[in-house]
């Protein structure tokens, strides 16, 4: 029989690991992608000011979804890839593990859509008194 800690170990960050907040993790992911593509912060001038890029990469702010979309387009990645990498960095796990979880959850959602929906009761008409 496994202990509760062992059972939950895969679902929570171990408390002894240094906590990295999601904004910092996203900044690290963006910087990693930018370096892999041999881009400078100035290469993002049409997307974000250099000072804003620095602020994002230092974890000082969280960009909006629209901004994440524009940033990921500039580094030629799907926005979900950049976000998944952020969670992998934050949680100290492999990117592949995060993507496998996303895939399993997405498949479950797709199965739920195909499941028969309960019949809706027709609305009652209120009669005047």
The value of Rg in angstroms is: 21 Å
What's the tally of helices? 6
Helix content: 55-70%
Strand proportion: under 5%
> What name does the CATH topology of one domain carry?
434 Repressor (Amino-terminal Domain)
Order of helices and strands: HHHHHH
The H-level CATH homologous superfamily of one domain, spelled out, is lambda repressor-like DNA-binding domains
Please tell me the CATH architecture of one domain by its name: Orthogonal Bundle
Structural class from helices and strands? mainly alpha
The outline comes out as elongated
Q: What is the first-to-last residue Cα distance?
A: 65 Å
Unreliable stretches: none
What's the CATH class label of one domain? Mainly Alpha
Largest sheet: none
Instruction: Work out the number of β strands.
Output: 0
Could you please describe the fold and organization of this structure?
This protein is mainly alpha-helical and 129 residues long. It has a domain at 18-99: lambda repressor-like DNA-binding domains (434 Repressor (Amino-terminal Domain)), CATH 1.10.260.40. The protein is built from six helices and no strands. The chain has helices at residues 4-8, 22-36, 50-57, 65-74, 79-91, 95-114. Helix 2 packs across helix 5. The radius of gyration is 21 Å and the shape is elongated. The model has no long low-confidence stretch (mean pLDDT 84).
């Amino acid at each position: 029989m496994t202990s509760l800690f062992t059972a939950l170990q895969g679902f929570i960050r171990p408390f002894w690991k240094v906590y990295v907040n999601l904004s910092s993790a996203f900044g690290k992911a963006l910087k990693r992608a930018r370096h892999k593509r041999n881009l400078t912060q100035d290469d993002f001038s049409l997307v974000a000011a250099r000072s804003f890029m620095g602020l994002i990469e230092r974890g000082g702010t969280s960009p909006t979804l629209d901004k994440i979309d524009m940033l990921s387009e500039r580094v030629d990645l799907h926005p979900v890839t950049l976000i998944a990498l952020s969670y992998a960095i934050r949680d100290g796990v492999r990117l592949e593990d995060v993507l496998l979880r996303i895939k399993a959850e997405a498949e479950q959602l797709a199965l739920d859509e195909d499941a028969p929906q309960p019949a809706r009761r027709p609305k009652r008409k209120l009669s005047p008194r």
